[in-house]
Amino acid sequence: MVIEDKKRTAHRAVVTRVLEGDGRASRAARRSAFENAGLGEPLRTLIDKIARQPTRVTDEDIAAVLASGESEDQIFELVVCAAIGAATRQYESALHALEEALIGTKGSEHASEHPQ
Amino acid sequence: MRLNILNSGYTFGTKVLFAFIHLVSRQPLPDAARLVFYRPDFYGAPMGAFTHLVMRGPSAWSVGDRELMAAFVSKMNACAFCIGAHTATAAMAYQDEAKYCKKGNYCFVWKALPNSLAISVYFCGVNPVKRLNSLMK
Fold it and tell me: Where are the domains of chain B?
């Protein structure tokens, strides 16, 4: 397997593990956190911050989710899913941008032999 | 640290490791490491495998280049700890690449560096390449 495929496979393994593997939070909740969609308050606020502005997360955000009945292990899993979801969206859009750039350079006489 | 499980929810072996790192570095273990070591089958292990492949695996980019990119991404993420860790590691990798890799000697250390060791570089400032070279003199 070429190295790029190995990287994609390893990335997919991370995503599959956190979404489909065993966990304390339900698979549906983990999927929602990953996609940052379809969550009710107070989880929605925490997950949205993790995904879009993680430096804004406060102790109160965590406390509110704990008070709503989620366990610490469930919060751990959902926060990880939210972060991996956000990272995956960035990763995929970067790969997409790279692909487009490579198509753009094809046929150009200035195209690099090793576009990186 | 806002979840108690990330303070105290570790196996005995991991607690021993934390104590050792604390002893060597004289600093509390960073939150990023606590996250990686908590229930590693959920996140730390699969993420570590991916990170290791990307950051230390075969690539047209050197380890220093990749760490520098990670420092830039950390800057975008506004993560002060990550900026510091990746900047320091980039600096060390560039120095080592300049010093040793041209001679073809100990580059493999950086390339084969397992993630847990990379963590010790990040978190304790221990550079295994320097350590190895001083030991071999």
Answer: 5-136
Q: What is the pTM of this model?
A: 0.79
- How many whole angstroms separate alpha carbon A17 and alpha carbon A45? 24
Domains identified in chain A, total number? 1
Is A113 within the bounds of a domain?
no
A111: in domain: no
With H, G, I as helix, E, B as strand and everything else as coil, classify residue B30.
coil
* Interface predicted TM-score of the whole assembly (ipTM), two decimals: 0.84
Closest chain A residue to B46 measured between Cα atoms? Answer: A14
> Is B80 within 8 Å of chain A by CB?
no
> Which residues in chain B touch residue A13, judged by CB atoms under 8 angstroms apart?
46, 49-50
Please list, in sequence order, all residues whose beta carbon lies within 8 angstroms of the beta carbon of residue B61, skipping any fewer than 6 positions away.
A116, B69
In chain B, what residues touch A54 (CB-CB under 8 Å)?
Answer: 77, 79
CB atoms within 10 A of CB B121: 19
pLDDT digits (tens, 9 = 90+) for A84-114: 999 999 999 998 998 899 887 765 545 445 5
